[in-house]
Amino acid sequence: MVNPILRISLTVYKLGALCMQWMQDKVYSIREAAANNPKRFAEEFGPEWAMQHLVPQFLHVVVEASKERVPNIKFNVPKLLQSIIPIVDQSVR
């Protein structure tokens, strides 16, 4: 039997990985929604959890997206950073 906490952690990890993929999608509306996901996750699970689990993954995506040749994907870098700032701000208070 799988521990319920472990099951939740695995589910959230999978969702985080999906969000990373969505940030690089060719469809604008999907990238736009993905850029808002960190804020929604932080609201649901708290800023401390988001700092520990999401921000490192999202920062990796920011670095990779900034190297992208496709301008529309590069434009998501500031949007993603903008969604991460409130999470970081709450966790350092």
Automatic annotation (TrEMBL):
Q: What is this protein called?
A: Uncharacterized protein
Where does the sequence pass through the membrane?
Answer: none
Taxonomic lineage per UniProt?
Eukaryota, Viridiplantae, Streptophyta, Embryophyta, Tracheophyta
Q: Which PANTHER family match?
A: SERINE/THREONINE-PROTEIN PHOSPHATASE PP2A 65 KDA REGULATORY SUBUNIT, SERINE_THREONINE-PROTEIN PHOSPHATASE 2A 65 KDA REGULATORY SUBUNIT A BETA ISOFORM-RELATED
For molecular function, the Gene Ontology terms on record are: protein phosphatase regulator activity
GO cellular component assignments: cytosol; nucleus; protein phosphatase type 2A complex
Q: Which InterPro entries match?
A: ARM-like, ARM-type_fold, PP2A_Regulatory_Subunit_A
**Keywords assigned:** Repeat
SUPFAM superfamilies for this protein: ARM repeat
- Source species, domain of life: Eukaryota
